[in-house]
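Re: the request from the purification team.
They wanted to know what the chain is likely to look like in 3D before they choose a buffer screen. I agreed to run a prediction and write the result into the notebook, where they can find it.
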Amino acid sequence: MQMHKEKYEELLRRFSQELHEVGVTGSLRDLITDQCERTPNVASATVDEVTDRFTYRHEGYMIEAVRMVKLVVKKCK
């Protein structure tokens, strides 16, 4: 039987890896943490960040690609 501490550490590692793969930055995590600490009774906290942007212009046209990461933390019952 696996101990609770080991399971907790495994879940934290997996969650950290998933955040990294999505592109969540340290500043984004800090903003969410600050929001939750500032208002502890809030039901959810949300932060958006543009991580990558590409713009191409040619003969009067512009193509723009944007990668946006949105981090939402909600309380569940």
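For the purification team: The radius of gyration is 18 Å.
Please add any questions underneath this entry.
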